[in-house]
Amino acid sequence: MPSLPQQNKERNLVTQFLHSIHYQSSSGNMPYGNALNILRAIFEASGQQHLLYLVKLRKLWHDKIDSFLARNAYPRNISVLRQFSVNDDFIKELVRSSVSSEIMQAVEKLNGETFKRSEQFNGKLQKKLKRSLSSEEMELLKHKVRFKPQQTILHLTVYDGSIAQALRFETEAYLRLFDRLLPELKLDDISCHVGDLGQAQYDQRQVALLAKDWHLVTPQEVHQRCMPAFLHRVSRGHAVLVLYVATDEGLAFLKRTPGADWLVRHLYKKRSELQEVLQKIAFVPKQELGLEQIRLRSVVLGDLQSEKPSSATKMKSAQLTSRSSKTSLSAKEQFALIRENLKESSHDSNGSA
User: Fold this and answer.
1) What φ, ψ does residue 112 adopt, rounded to 5°?
2) Within a domain: residue 21?
3) Domain-located, residue 106
4) Rounded distance, CA 123 to CA 89, Å?
């Protein structure tokens, strides 16, 4: 359990964050109280409780993770794979809900099948029905279909394929390392995505800054319907700002008025530096999350990028960079280097125990 000074430090940091995003309690005048619990409740309510663990992991990244991993990878996201299986219990629950015989017959034909998304299940069901589901049927199924978490995955951005291959060799060792650092986070796998580490962090920072001031830089008809989510980088010089839209009606409106091209030009006028950041905008429906929840997620992910590694970490990184510049390590050599670093970490932890 964290020490009292550490708990107070975390509470102060979270309180400052809540103030920075202008978070208000329901009464508007109540004190923030236990800020960490408030933030945790916000994340859990939006189904993004793993965002807190990502925050903690990033704070530990340059100080507690071995230099090889800290130098060559960065935590990008934590995702949870969920599944829903049609089984006898689900069918019985539908019977108790007085679902039409037509729906029941179609569902029974899907007995034993597993789905990863509600859209996938609804699509398969509609094929069996040979018609579209009504809004009432969609609403009923929305409350009856429950997806259960199956696997929690840490996504890392790595700078080339050989690093990804080397990390795959040591997945189990790193999972044990993360389990020691964050025992409350139970990871099942690590997934690597090749990209520019500095660019990825810079992009998240820009999205966070934009999300914070979205209501200031866009007209009301825009910021009440969408929110910056992330930058999709097609290439080094071409990025698409993805805006999550809360409703289908909002999506249709934004595509028609003012349109993506107009919004890009408008953002350039408001923030000239964005000309170097994004080139296009894409509207994406995200009905399961509210705009404020999307804003919160973007701000949290981006604000952490301003933290700087410690001087000791910088020295280690500089040494590693110097070695790497002299020779290009193969995947096999990267693998050996990982094992060496893990052994050093193990010896250090045993010595301090």
Assistant:
1) 95, -10
2) yes
3) yes
4) 21
Are residues 92 and 145 both part of a single domain? yes
Nearest-angstrom CA–CA distance, 347 and 208: 39
Q: Is residue 251 part of a domain?
A: no
- Domain count for the chain: 2
The phi, psi pair for 79, rounded to 5°, reads -120, 155
Give me the domain span that covers residue 36: 1-45
Q: Is 228 exposed, middle or buried (0-12, 13-18, 19+ CB in 10 A)?
A: buried
Last residue of a domain, one of 149, 170, 202: 149
Residue 24 belongs to some domain of the structure: yes
Per-residue pLDDT of the chain (353 residues; tens, 9 = 90+): 455 665 565 556 555 555 555 555 444 444 434 555 666 666 665 556 687 788 888 888 888 888 888 888 989 888 888 899 999 999 999 999 888 999 999 999 999 999 988 889 999 999 999 999 998 898 889 889 998 888 999 999 887 788 888 888 889 999 999 999 888 888 999 999 888 777 888 888 899 999 999 999 999 999 999 999 988 887 778 889 999 998 889 999 999 989 999 999 999 999 999 998 899 999 998 877 788 888 888 887 776 444 444 444 444 334 433 333 333 344 445 445 555 555 554 455 445 44
